[in-house]
Amino acid sequence: MRLRLLVADDHQLMLAAVRLALRDAADIDIVGEARSGAEVLPLAGQTSPDVALLDLRMPGMDGLRCLELLQERYPAVKSVVFSGNDDPAAVEACMARGAAAFVHKSIDPRELAGAIRKAVAGEAFFSVGNTRVVRAPEGDVDLTPRESEILRAVADGMPNKQIAGKLWLSEQTIKYHLTNLYRKLRVTSRTEAIRYAYEHGLLESPVLRMAASPA
């Protein structure tokens, strides 16, 4: 199956970068390029895409509004947000409006085609920096990309100060995210959070999985 892709970004250089990143993806055809949010809906009507790759910040109409209108008028089109913003609130706002995936612009270009395929396959996919998270099934824990990144750092034994330095955040912000993590995991400590994460597949570590297995 060949996927028809509509790309929307107000930076011509980014449009060129997307074309280059998908050059070797034989199953993905770029059928349209929009340089403003206002161009997205008319172009979607003209090109009948399977997927729309949307920048979050565009002149005329932002990505969030595009998401809402695409869901309303073209519900069969999968929307993938492609943004330089890694704010958890932005990710959650996009998913609440029907985005099938949220991909940070720092993603390895070789992985962009795979992220698009995951979105079409129905896997809600997040890629923020070096963190990749697949949305948990309904009813399970659903962490934001930032929470997942902090959880991994906690599992690696990093204290709050070190995590804050690594992520360029304040220690208070790290504490805020940890509070949300504990609430979502229904735990009260770092040790319990790590144990829960490995037991429920939120983190993958063959070594720790072996250690946690019954003797």
Description:
This protein folds into 2 domains: 3-134, Rossmann fold; 145-202, Arc Repressor Mutant, subunit A. With 215 residues, it is α/β, with parallel strands linked by helices. The chain is elongated, with a radius of gyration of 19 Å. It has a 7-stranded mixed β-sheet with strand order 2-1-3-4-5-6-7, with helices on both faces. The relative contact order is 0.09. The chain is 47% helix and 16% strand. The model is unreliable at 129-139 and 205-215 (pLDDT under 50). The longest helix is centred in the last third of the chain and has 15 residues, at 171-185. The chain has helices at 12-21, 37-47, 63-73, 88-96, 112-120, 145-155, 160-167, 171-185, 190-199, 206-212, and strands spanning 3-8, 28-34, 51-54, 78-83, 101-104, 125-128, 131-134.
Envelope shape: elongated
Roughly how many Å apart are the termini? 47 Å
- Per DSSP E runs of 2 or more residues, the count of β-strands stands at 7
Q: What structural category do the secondary elements indicate?
A: alpha/beta
> Judging by the overall fold, what is the CATH architecture of the largest domain?
3-Layer(aba) Sandwich
Order of helices and strands: EHEHEHEHEHEEHHHHH
Assign the CATH class of the largest domain.
Alpha Beta
What is the total number of structural domains? 2
Radius of gyration equals: 19 Å
Helix content range of the residues, please?
A: 40-55%
Q: Largest sheet, if any? A: 7 strands, mixed
The count of helical stretches stands at 10
Low-confidence stretches: 129-139, 205-215
**Residue fraction in strands:** 15-25%
CATH homology group of the largest domain? Response regulator
CATH fold description of the largest domain: Rossmann fold
